[in-house]
Design a protein that fits this description.
Largest sheet: 2 strands, antiparallel
Helix content: 25-40%
Structural class: alpha+beta
Number of helices: 4
Strand content: 15-25%
Strand order of the largest sheet: 1-2
Distance between the termini: 36 Å
Order of helices and strands: HHHEEEEH
Length: 111
Protein backbone atom coordinates (compact mmCIF):
# COMPACT_ATOMS: atom_id res chain seq x y z
CA UNK A 1 0.00 0.00 0.00
CA UNK A 2 1.57 3.35 -1.00
CA UNK A 3 2.35 5.61 1.95
CA UNK A 4 0.56 8.61 0.35
CA UNK A 5 -2.61 6.51 -0.05
CA UNK A 6 -2.29 5.24 3.52
CA UNK A 7 -1.78 8.76 4.91
CA UNK A 8 -4.80 10.12 2.98
CA UNK A 9 -7.00 7.29 4.23
CA UNK A 10 -5.92 7.68 7.84
CA UNK A 11 -6.10 11.49 7.72
CA UNK A 12 -9.62 11.35 6.32
CA UNK A 13 -10.72 8.89 8.97
CA UNK A 14 -10.14 11.26 11.87
CA UNK A 15 -9.53 10.58 15.52
CA UNK A 16 -6.70 8.61 17.05
CA UNK A 17 -6.34 5.97 18.36
CA UNK A 18 -7.88 4.20 15.39
CA UNK A 19 -9.77 0.95 14.97
CA UNK A 20 -8.79 -0.71 11.69
CA UNK A 21 -12.35 -2.02 11.25
CA UNK A 22 -13.55 1.59 11.25
CA UNK A 23 -10.77 2.59 8.84
CA UNK A 24 -11.80 -0.27 6.56
CA UNK A 25 -15.42 0.92 6.56
CA UNK A 26 -14.27 4.48 5.84
CA UNK A 27 -11.99 3.43 2.96
CA UNK A 28 -14.51 0.98 1.50
CA UNK A 29 -17.39 3.49 1.59
CA UNK A 30 -15.32 6.06 -0.31
CA UNK A 31 -13.86 3.64 -2.84
CA UNK A 32 -10.35 4.20 -1.49
CA UNK A 33 -9.51 0.52 -1.26
CA UNK A 34 -10.47 -2.54 -3.26
CA UNK A 35 -9.15 -6.03 -2.54
CA UNK A 36 -7.01 -7.50 -5.30
CA UNK A 37 -9.12 -9.84 -7.43
CA UNK A 38 -6.78 -12.77 -6.81
CA UNK A 39 -7.31 -12.44 -3.05
CA UNK A 40 -11.06 -12.64 -3.63
CA UNK A 41 -10.59 -15.80 -5.72
CA UNK A 42 -8.29 -17.38 -3.10
CA UNK A 43 -10.76 -16.56 -0.31
CA UNK A 44 -13.71 -17.92 -2.30
CA UNK A 45 -11.86 -21.15 -3.10
CA UNK A 46 -10.84 -21.56 0.54
CA UNK A 47 -14.38 -20.94 1.84
CA UNK A 48 -15.96 -23.21 -0.78
CA UNK A 49 -13.45 -26.03 -0.17
CA UNK A 50 -14.07 -25.84 3.58
CA UNK A 51 -17.82 -25.99 2.97
CA UNK A 52 -17.49 -28.97 0.62
CA UNK A 53 -15.31 -30.86 3.13
CA UNK A 54 -17.93 -30.37 5.86
CA UNK A 55 -20.90 -31.98 4.11
CA UNK A 56 -21.71 -35.59 5.02
CA UNK A 57 -24.51 -38.08 4.39
CA UNK A 58 -25.42 -41.52 5.78
CA UNK A 59 -24.70 -44.46 3.47
CA UNK A 60 -26.88 -47.56 3.14
CA UNK A 61 -25.34 -48.99 6.37
CA UNK A 62 -25.91 -45.65 8.14
CA UNK A 63 -22.19 -44.83 8.21
CA UNK A 64 -21.23 -41.18 7.90
CA UNK A 65 -19.63 -40.51 4.52
CA UNK A 66 -18.15 -37.26 3.24
CA UNK A 67 -20.20 -36.17 0.25
CA UNK A 68 -17.56 -34.25 -1.74
CA UNK A 69 -14.03 -35.45 -2.44
CA UNK A 70 -11.12 -33.61 -4.01
CA UNK A 71 -8.18 -34.81 -6.06
CA UNK A 72 -5.15 -32.70 -6.91
CA UNK A 73 -3.37 -32.94 -10.22
CA UNK A 74 0.06 -31.52 -10.97
CA UNK A 75 1.42 -30.72 -14.40
CA UNK A 76 5.02 -29.71 -15.12
CA UNK A 77 5.31 -27.33 -18.05
CA UNK A 78 8.14 -27.29 -20.56
CA UNK A 79 9.73 -24.39 -18.66
CA UNK A 80 9.71 -26.44 -15.44
CA UNK A 81 6.86 -24.62 -13.73
CA UNK A 82 4.38 -26.80 -11.90
CA UNK A 83 0.68 -26.03 -11.98
CA UNK A 84 -1.92 -27.59 -9.74
CA UNK A 85 -5.60 -28.08 -10.36
CA UNK A 86 -8.14 -29.49 -7.90
CA UNK A 87 -11.27 -31.30 -9.05
CA UNK A 88 -14.22 -32.06 -6.77
CA UNK A 89 -16.64 -34.96 -7.13
CA UNK A 90 -20.08 -35.42 -5.59
CA UNK A 91 -20.47 -38.94 -4.19
CA UNK A 92 -24.23 -38.65 -4.67
CA UNK A 93 -24.03 -37.77 -8.36
CA UNK A 94 -24.83 -40.28 -11.08
CA UNK A 95 -21.10 -40.55 -11.85
CA UNK A 96 -20.44 -41.68 -8.25
CA UNK A 97 -17.19 -39.79 -7.95
CA UNK A 98 -14.19 -42.03 -8.51
CA UNK A 99 -14.24 -42.32 -12.29
CA UNK A 100 -15.39 -38.74 -12.71
CA UNK A 101 -12.76 -37.50 -10.23
CA UNK A 102 -9.90 -39.52 -11.57
CA UNK A 103 -9.31 -41.53 -8.41
CA UNK A 104 -8.45 -44.38 -10.76
CA UNK A 105 -5.28 -42.49 -11.74
CA UNK A 106 -6.64 -40.66 -14.75
CA UNK A 107 -7.04 -36.93 -14.80
CA UNK A 108 -10.45 -35.45 -15.63
CA UNK A 109 -10.81 -32.92 -18.42
CA UNK A 110 -7.40 -33.65 -19.87
CA UNK A 111 -5.40 -31.57 -17.42
Amino acid sequence: MPSSWRRATLAGHGDWPIDLDEVFEFAQARGLWHPPKMQIRVRFRSDMARSLREEYFPDERNHTVRRYHAARYYNRGEDGTVTQQVFWADMLSDDRGSSNLGLDGTCPRGF
